[in-house]
Amino acid sequence: MRLNTFYLINFLILILIYNVYSVNSVKLKGVTIEVTPYLYIRNNQFSGYCVDVMNEISKIAGFNYSLYKAPDGRHGEVSPTGAINGIIFEVYNKAADFGIADLTVSESRKRYVDFSLPIMNLSVSALIHKTNAEYIEYFKDLPRQTRIRY
């Protein structure tokens, strides 16, 4: 993965709800994978940040939900032939109403599902000593500097 596409990883919820006109008393089915520290699965019980977020959303919106683990344990890759798997596959094929995980939004995934806005953004940063930072503001500046040895 190239560095400039890696600097921002979207932690998000993707939600697709088909033919649901009133969420009161609706029970939605969600798919996820275990990815610490955001989601833990112990004795078929789900916990962690993602579950806490979904619990609050369900209280506010007035719906119930259940979670299951994606059968293949994958986020959802799209092969060169267009085959999909993981969470993306489960939501696209309507086995699940929504998916929740630390998913990166990509154009190939967006062909199959809709994404919500991220609920958390993570970025990669580096720390260097101030005396070496005169001309380094971004990663792209590193090749032009002469003071730091690799």
Automatic annotation (TrEMBL):
**Location of this chain's protein in the cell:** Membrane
Can the keyword Transmembrane be found in this entry's annotation? yes
Keyword set includes Transmembrane: yes
The Ionotropic glutamate receptor L-glutamate and glycine-binding domain is annotated at 37-93
Query: Which segments cross the bilayer?
Result: 6-23
Membrane topology qualifier: Multi-pass membrane protein
| An example Gene Ontology CC term for this record | membrane
Superkingdom is: Eukaryota
- A GO molecular function for this record? ligand-gated monoatomic ion channel activity
Q: Which UniProt keywords apply?
A: Glycoprotein, Ion channel, Ion transport, Ligand-gated ion channel, Membrane, Receptor, Transmembrane, Transmembrane helix, Transport
Name the SUPFAM superfamilies for this protein. Periplasmic binding protein-like II
**One Pfam family matching this protein:** Lig_chan-Glu_bd
Looking up PANTHER family in the UniProt record yields:
IONOTROPIC GLUTAMATE RECEPTOR
Protein name per the record = Ionotropic glutamate receptor L-glutamate and glycine-binding domain-containing protein
